[in-house]
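hi! just following up on the protien thing from before. the input was this:
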Amino acid sequence: MNKTVMFLINGLGIEKADSCNVYHENLMPNMDRLMNEYLFTSLPTTTSDYNSGYQIFSMGNMKPLGYSFMETMIEENQFDTNPNFNHFKEFLRILEGTIHIFCLLDDERVVEHLKGFIRALEIDSNKKIFVHVVLPQKLLDGYKRLIKILNKLNYDSLTQIKIGMIFGLSIIEQPEKTSELLDLGRMFFRGTGERWNELDKKLESLWNAKVAPCDAKGFCVTDGFSLHDNDMIFVFNYEGINCDRLLQFLSNPPMSITHSVNTQTLHFQSLFPLKTTLKISHLYEPLSSETSMAKALEQAGLTALVLADQENINLIYYMANGLTMKAPNDKVKFAVTDNGILFSQEKMSTIINDPNYQVIIINHRVDQCTSIEELQNKLTQIDQNLAMIKDLCWEKYTLIISSLFGIKKEISHANQSELVNFSGSVPVILVDKRYDKSLYKLGFGSIYTLLGTAIRCANPEKKFPTLLKKKDFLTRLLFKK
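and the predicted 3d structure came back as:
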């Protein structure tokens, strides 16, 4: 059996025309040489963050599993088959307060799912329902679709649904957003704040100010959305999003907020389990994917070792096992790189030559750089590491160099902000003397095909989708090496 070493430079992509000039010929000479001498192609990618990159790499899809689950529940009218749903439905029937639904809005389908869910609850038409929209989009391009989605929620939904507040996800996720969370809390408890009836104008102003949707400060849309005694706070979530800061705030607001709400009478519930220290009931258990890196490796009879920093190991573990922390097998192992082992030739030689692992995945990342200078220095350092890894693999193992996503963000340069745009496509280089350029090529595929390529190079007998193709006779004649 062979072995594949994957060298991932996560965040690096093919530089676009509107990007400031980051890449130059002396920045990564080792990578440039390998690109010219060995098999090379580029892969399209629609994501620009670590989470989504690993989800697509492992499962081939970045959409929450709850999407298809909710569509099935609506189409086949299966809501009443769940005892938790029936209990919740009965509770809302006798609820004296208002229903507040917090909802991450990143797709039109979410609106349809929310409508179908509320219809199934058969809520009294006189009962108020306020939807508080949470914006998760990290790129400015997200505004292009947001206005359509928000209008669909505002004007093409059940008449009893009204939009209350709109705010960015980072306000409830990032601890440094304390003042923004405080402002959001004041708005919710008091029912007053910055108000915009014309959503398209508000989103346009955020676009012009280059504020990503996920960083948008809270504003309100409709009157009468404030919190009162006995209200229900329901989180319409597909995944275990971190709502701890928000829920802690609402259940025990700071003294600086003057309000008349008895927070002990508030009710909390969610669709799927949340990441929170509070005991919040949920209607459905977490879903896991039928497709995952772990299951693919088991099918191929391979074991992988993933090298990553401590910060990202739990995330990769979750994605590699199909959106669950309960591993279906023991085919994905991990090693922490915070101690600098990636740059130790002795330690990396021991790891790469370990017969227990047939796939080695090395993770570098450049998406956290905050300046052009830091980014360029990081890429040069990674390029030097690549030269060492290539020598350790030479004439023994297949080396695949790529990235799971490309960044698109404003970072500092010479006392100003400039756009770095590596989004849309990532490079792929396959280094192996067995696959001569005159006989083989890298074809079309996706980030998920990258995983299949690594598996096929380690075990060619297994039929996984692969970028590696053998040239036909005519192609070999027309495009000689």
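The first helix runs from residue 29 to 37.
The mean pLDDT is 92.
cheers
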